[in-house]
Design brief:
alpha/beta, 2-enoyl-CoA Hydratase, Chain A, domain 1, 9 strands, 273 residues, 3-stranded mixed sheet, 6-stranded mixed sheet
Length: 273
């Protein structure tokens, strides 16, 4: 078994190992920030999937987070800088957010997420867009956009209604309420929920099984099933564009300020200020 991971040297905030033949383990590695996605990690989340798809040594990819969290979503300091420099960065943000979703849809290799802890925003996109998702029972998941005064525009509109139905999708996305891994399994948002100490081993068991299975059949099946998501592409594109437009709103600045100050936001679209 080759352990060479040098093709991934460009991705500085992720660790790469090959624990089993044909299995690539990707670990988001900003544990001091609960693996929140700053500018570099968000870019890497979007660029990595074509590299994995073309990697001849990888048949299955498992993605997880280092430490206690899967990923705490967008880094608040980075988001503040993005809002202040909106005209310069909006195109890049849109391109990267689309790259995460379409990159995972179109990646030839099966992707398994091992959701070892809290997962929010961009991190949740990698968790939920995975072909198979294994969550810790008590892990807390939320899209979180609405709490920031921001339209839900990343992965959720393209896949949540397919996974858990429109009623549950609307409830959790409009309220930004957390859903546990156990409840996420019950409503179909994740493939399965297990005890926290079993998350990675369970994901690895599945990965090894798939890595030793008929690769053409597995990849063709993934491609065919993901046509459901490709059909929903216009929904995602519109949602992502509306999210970018929403960055102009003073609600977003207030939501970000309140979150950093740990205060209840006073959204201008509510207060009239």
């Amino acid at each position: 078994m080759s352990s060479d991971v040098s093709i991934y040297d460009q991705f500085k905030q992720m660790n790469f190992t090959r624990p089993y033949d044909g299995v690539l383990l990707v670990t988001m590695a900003r544990p001091e920030k609960y693996n929140a996605a700053d500018t570099e990690m968000h870019r890497d989340m979007s660029l990595i999937w074509p590299v994995i798809s073309a990697d001849p040594l990888t048949r299955v990819c498992v993605i997880t987070g280092e430490g206690k969290a899967f990923s705490a979503g967008g880094d608040l300091n980075t988001m503040h800088e993005q809002i202040e420099n909106y005209p310069m960065v909006v195109g890049q943000i849109l391109k990267e957010a689309a790259g995460i979703v379409y990159g995972m849809i179109n990646c030839e290799k099966v992707i398994i997420s091992a959701i070892n802890g809290p997962s929010v925003g961009a991190g949740l996109a990698c968790a939920i867009m995975a072909d198979i998702s294994v969550a810790a029972k008590h892990a807390k998941l939320t899209d979180g956009h609405i709490k920031l005064g921001l339209a839900v525009g990343d992965h959720a509109p393209i896949i949540w209604p397919l996974l858990c139905g429109l009623a549950k999708a609307k409830y959790y996305l409009l309220t930004s309420r957390f859903v546990t891994g156990e409840e996420a399994e019950r409503i179909g948002l994740v493939s399965m929920a297990v005890d926290a100490d079993q998350v990675l081993s369970t994901a690895m068991d599945i990965a090894v099984d798939l890595a030793n299975g008929p690769q053409d059949a597995i990849r063709f099946t993934k491609y065919a099933l993901n046509n459901w998501l490709r059909q929903a592409g216009p929904i995602f594109d519109a949602a992502l564009a509306l999210e970018m437009l929403n960055l102009f709103s003073p609600d977003v600045s207030e939501g970000l300020r309140a979150m950093k100050a740990k205060e209840k936001p006073a959204f201008p679209t509510v207060t009239g200020r």
